[in-house]
């Protein structure tokens, strides 16, 4: 049997050992919480700076809207081709970015009535030219390079070009309401998904592609997106309440898949983020991934069913 003094020393030693064992865990938890807080703070500060600039550009005028998204298209396509190059692919980024800008501008000028619609046929020889240029390159995977060059135009520039159809739907007259409404619902969906998912997200939505995306976050984003859709319908009467709710529903589904598609792209190229142009958010592709898949579906919904 241990003496009283020995027993006290024994208890103290066991206590110190137990505290020592727990220190790394506690320290690790504190570090994780600190990183999460720092990341959230950067996201909020970036949003507070970027959102007013984007909304002001859209609200200001048709040309403000055009120039704003022209810049986004150019930078996002540059990110896309940079990702492809990091993945060992060699697309023609100059032709790709040029083709994306031409596509974006031609659809805008046609939808606004500045040029006839048949000018869009310029895109046909532009596509053929991409094939011809690759003949003079010395790469070992020419059709992979061609495919990624064209994919950059379709995947990145295409949705922004299609957005003109809704922005200029009233006989070529610009209206900021649908564009602004789409962005606000998209941001609500992303914000709700991030806040709920980072707080209580446990059930993985699509672990093979995006291990951090959860069902709880998806439902949180969906709830906030529908609430914002309802609120927007009371201020932007260019389309009906049910149409706005339909747009919200499309954003919830197609926007979520858009996020997963971009994650699939980055995973296939073994890259974590598309860029770091927006602190706390990554690159422009990370910020507009939901937009790229949602907008084509929204345009089809509005034009065919409304």
Task: Looking at this protein, list some descriptive labels.
9 helices, 3% strand, mainly alpha, 306 residues, 2 domains
Helix content: over 70%
Label the overall shape. Answer: globular
What composes the largest sheet? 2 strands, antiparallel
List SSEs in N-to-C order: HHHHHHEEHHH
Query: What is the rounded distance between the termini?
Result: 87 Å
The SS-based structural class is: mainly alpha
**Could you give the count of β-strands?**
2
C-alpha-based Rg, rounded? 25 Å
Mean pLDDT: 85
How many structural domains? 2
Adjacency order of strands in the biggest sheet = 1-2
How many H/I helical runs? 9
Percent in strands: under 5%
Residue stretches low in confidence (pLDDT < 50, at least 5 long) are 1-14, 19-23
Describe the protein:
It is a single chain. The chain is mainly alpha-helical and 306 residues long. It folds into two domains: 49-173, no CATH class; 175-306, no CATH class. Helix content is 76%, strand content 3%. It is built from nine helices and two strands. It has helices spanning 4-60, 62-86, 93-111, 123-135, 142-167, 176-200, 215-233, 241-268, 284-305; strands at residues 204-206, 210-214. Strand 1 and strand 2 (210-214) form a beta hairpin. The radius of gyration is 25 Å and the shape is globular. Mean pLDDT is 85; it is low at 1-14 and 19-23.
């Amino acid at each position: 049997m241990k003496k009283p003094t020995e027993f006290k020393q024994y208890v103290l030693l066991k206590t110190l050992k137990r505290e020592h064992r727990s220190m790394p865990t506690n320290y690790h938890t504190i570090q994780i919480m600190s990183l999460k807080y720092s990341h959230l703070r950067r996201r909020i500060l970036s949003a507070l700076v970027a959102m007013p600039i984007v909304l002001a550009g859209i609200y200001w005028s048709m040309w403000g809207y055009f120039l704003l998204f022209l810049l986004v298209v150019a930078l996002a396509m540059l990110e896309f081709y940079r990702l492809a190059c990091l993945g060992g692919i060699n697309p023609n980024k100059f032709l790709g970015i040029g083709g994306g800008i031409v596509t974006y501008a031609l659809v805008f000028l046609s939808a606004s009535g500045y040029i006839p619609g048949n000018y869009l046929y310029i895109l046909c020889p532009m596509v053929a030219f991409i094939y011809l240029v690759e003949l003079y390159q010395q790469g070992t995977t020419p059709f992979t390079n061609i495919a990624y060059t064209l994919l950059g135009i379709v995947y990145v520039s295409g949705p922004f070009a299609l957005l003109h159809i809704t922005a200029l739907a009233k006989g070529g007259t610009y209206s900021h309401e649908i564009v602004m409404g789409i962005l606000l619902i998209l941001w609500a969906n992303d914000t709700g998904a991030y806040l709920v998912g980072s707080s209580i997200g446990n059930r993985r939505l699509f672990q093979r592609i995006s291990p951090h995306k959860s069902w709880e976050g998806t439902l949180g984003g969906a709830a906030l997106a529908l609430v914002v859709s309802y609120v927007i319908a009371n201020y932007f009467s260019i389309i009906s309440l049910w149409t706005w709710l339909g747009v919200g529903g499309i954003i919830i589904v197609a926007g979520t898949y858009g996020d997963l598609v971009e994650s699939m792209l980055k995973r296939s190229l073994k890259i974590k983020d598309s860029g770091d142009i927006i602190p706390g958010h990554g690159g422009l592709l990370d910020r507009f991934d939901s937009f790229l898949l949602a907008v084509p579906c929204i345009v089809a919904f509005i034009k065919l069913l409304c």
